[in-house]
């Protein structure tokens, strides 16, 4: 019953934030990239329409009623802290990482291997890294973890705060 209630609430919130897919923002990777990702996953097509998938892609990048900060805002925060010569390289890495994460996260809940908990953790890691070198390392580690999750060599239970605190020598939430 709890799953049904949560699912209905998510659908209602999602429908309130419904965006016009014809107006694909220039700040998001090209729509065709995600159309191809959708077409490559027959299992997801059985549970989710392409329109719903693309709506979740936009939600990932722009935020929604539940998560006000989207990937574009996280990119902006990371790039604002970057040194002049590093921003182009970081921008490219963040765009690639974002597209990979979005392609998986936007799938139906029963299919996807990247969930909202992971998004929140990775967003926090990127934002709480103290300096440019730590942010670069954060991007590298998250990229490696996403690739490992998608290949099945890393489990979702491995994506936890202590992992990133240890690998990056940062304190994320101070014991909260």
Largest sheet: none
Beta strand count: 0
Number of domains: 1
Topology pattern, helix = H, strand = E: HHHHHHHHH
Question: DSSP helix count?
Answer: 9
Strand content range: under 5%
Helix content: 55-70%
What distance separates the N and C termini?
29 Å
Q: Note the overall shape.
A: globular
Oligomer: single chain
Give the C-alpha Rg.
16 Å
Poorly predicted spans? none
Summing up helix and strand content along with how strands pair, one would put the structural category as: mainly alpha
Overview of this protein structure:
The protein is mostly helical and 176 residues long. It has one domain. Helix content is 63%, strand content 0%. The protein has helices at 2-16, 31-39, 42-45, 50-62, 71-80, 87-105, 116-128, 132-151, 161-168. It starts with a helix and ends in an 8-residue tail after the last helix.
């Amino acid at each position: 019953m709890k799953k049904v209630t949560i699912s209905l609430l998510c659908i209602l919130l999602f429908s309130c934030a419904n965006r016009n897919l014809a107006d694909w923002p220039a700040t998001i990777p090209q729509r065709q990239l995600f159309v191809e990702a959708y077409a490559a996953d027959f299992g997801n097509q059985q549970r989710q329409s392409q329109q719903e998938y693309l709506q979740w892609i936009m939600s990932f990048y722009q935020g929604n009623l539940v998560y006000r900060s989207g990937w574009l805002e996280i990119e902006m925060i990371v790039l604002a802290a970057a040194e002049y010569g590093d921003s182009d390289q970081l921008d490219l890495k963040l765009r690639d990482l974002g597209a990979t994460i979005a392609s998986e996260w936007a799938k139906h809940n029963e299919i996807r291997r990247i969930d909202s908990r992971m998004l929140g953790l990775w967003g926090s890691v990127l934002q709480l890294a103290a300096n440019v070198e730590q942010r670069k390392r954060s991007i590298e580690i998250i990229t490696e973890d996403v690739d490992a999750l998608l290949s099945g060599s890393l489990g979702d239970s491995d994506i936890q705060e202590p992992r990133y605190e240890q690998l990056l020598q940062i304190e994320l939430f101070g014991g909260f």
